[in-house]
Amino acid sequence: YWLVRSTPSLEQRAPPAAAQHLPDYFMHKFSVKTFDARGLLKSEVIGQDARHFPDTDTLEIEQVQIRSFNEEGQLTTASARQALANSSASEIQLIGQALIERKASRDKSGKEQTALTFKGEFLPAFMDTERVQSHKPVELTRGQDHFTADSLDYDNHNRVMLLTGRVRGQLMPAPTP
Predict the structure, then answer these.
(1) Are 131 and 154 in contact, with CB atoms under 8 Å apart?
(2) pTM (2 decimals)?
(3) What 3-state DSSP class applies to 106?
(4) Cβ atoms within 10 A of the Cβ of 18, count?
(5) How many other C-beta atoms can be found within 10 angstroms of the C-beta atom of residue 92?
(6) What is the pLDDT of residue 32?
(7) 30: nearest Cα among 66, 80, 56
(8) 103-134 CB burial, b ≥16 within 10 A, e <16
(9) What are phi and psi of 4, to 5 degrees?
């Protein structure tokens, strides 16, 4: 009995399998909506195809279109050939013909907010903090003004934009009443 208990078993345990980057679910021609605590639409993501990867907990979306409303109800739309979103959808990387647009509106104090458009091949958008950043060339249109730059960091809450690298801009005079 002691000899049988003391003898090592011949079974070799296989080492744990390495995590593979394989999707665990797919979506085709879909729309996903999120709502705030009051039941108001907060965001909608529309796509042609999507794949979820559990090893990175990310979602890859083809032909993406996004509608997002901030706390004041202002609509921002985004589109791209592809998007990569984290699990909470708080960070979305727009890849290939990326376009982010905020329509002209008025804030709570009644001040007019000029229409704003970002274009580029790579535009990461941070939804919770309302930031857009890119280390790739971007094109920006604000009303009639037009800018290009090698990189961008835009904070929508503070209305601060940092354009770096080779920056070019065309400022148009304000229309006269």
Answers:
(1) yes
(2) 0.80
(3) strand
(4) 6
(5) 24
(6) 87
(7) 66
(8) eeeeeeeeeeeeebbbbbebbbbebeebbbbb
(9) -65, -40
Amino acid identity for residue 69 in this structure? F
Long-range contacts of 19-23 (CB under 8 A, 24+ apart): 19/55, 20/55, 21/53, 21/55, 21/56, 22/53, 22/55, 23/51, 23/52, 23/53
Q: What is the pLDDT of residues 95-128, one digit of tens each?
A: 999 999 988 877 777 778 888 999 999 999 888 7
Which 3 state secondary structure label does DSSP give 5?
A: helix
Cα radius of gyration rounded to whole Å, the chain = 23
The DSSP code for 20 is -
**Total residues belonging to the chain:** 177
User: Is residue 174 packed enough to be buried (19+ CB in 10 Å), middle (13-18) or exposed (0-12)?
Assistant: exposed
Q: Measured on CA atoms in the order 131, 167, 140, 60, is the torsion positive or negative?
A: negative
Give the sign of the dihedral formed by CA 118, CA 174, CA 159, CA 88.
negative
State the amino acid at position 164 in one-letter form.
Answer: T
Residues 23, 52 contacting (CB under 8 angstroms): yes
